[in-house]
Amino acid sequence: MPIPEEVTGDEIDKDVRQELQSLPKTLAEDVARNLVMVAQLLDEDPEAAYGYSRVALRLASRVAAVREAAGFAAYANQKYGEALAEFRAARRMTGSVELWPVMADCERGLGRPEKALDMAGAPEVHKLDKAGQVEMRLVAAGARRDMGQLDAAIVTLQSPELASNSVQPWTARLRYAYADALLAAGREREAREWFAKAVESDRDGSTDASDRLAELDGVEFMDALDEDEDGPGAGNDAEGSSAEDADKA
């Protein structure tokens, strides 16, 4: 797969660069450049990121960072079985528990929420840092919801991290998940309160909490392009669209 000339491979994390030192120099550079492409494209074009991850995997399957990158690329493409296999391989190589929450979420993706809950109660969770423990809590709550246990999901999310007024990297997502669970349980007033709190803490726009809050407040967003087209002579088109929407409903 083509890689832009400006991508040198030097952009990768120093720890990953150190892992690649076990490879011949030219090979290490090729792998590094592919890993950079995975990182750059993972959010905006996960399919392309997956392609670059497969190239890196073919070149250096015995490097833990490569297996991890391949796992995240597969995960972003909802290839949960493949992602889980790669994460397990990376974990065997490093002995780290860092990937435990995303491995549990892969179990959810594979339709095995009970397995995800088993992992949430495993000793490995106690070895996670605070961010990892919060992530594990989010996965466990999701598993509860998968099983139709809304009240249990709400209780799972109730924690000192949720109650804290300090804003951490995980705060917005935790508050959002709690608000969403409350709404699913029909507790709309409380859900609105927590969506508002999620908005306050969502400094990088990692959630759509503001949109969800607006929906609860009855705010309707109108596409500016549609508004421009609603001029003279546009009535037939609008009527046709409404009929099409009614058919879909």
Automatic annotation (TrEMBL):
<feature type="region of interest" description="Disordered">
    <location>
        <begin position="222"/>
        <end position="249"/>
    </location>
</feature>
<dbReference type="InterPro" id="IPR011990">
    <property type="entry name" value="TPR-like_helical_dom_sf"/>
</dbReference>
<protein>
    <submittedName>
        <fullName>Tetratricopeptide repeat protein</fullName>
    </submittedName>
</protein>
<feature type="compositionally biased region" description="Acidic residues">
    <location>
        <begin position="222"/>
        <end position="231"/>
    </location>
</feature>
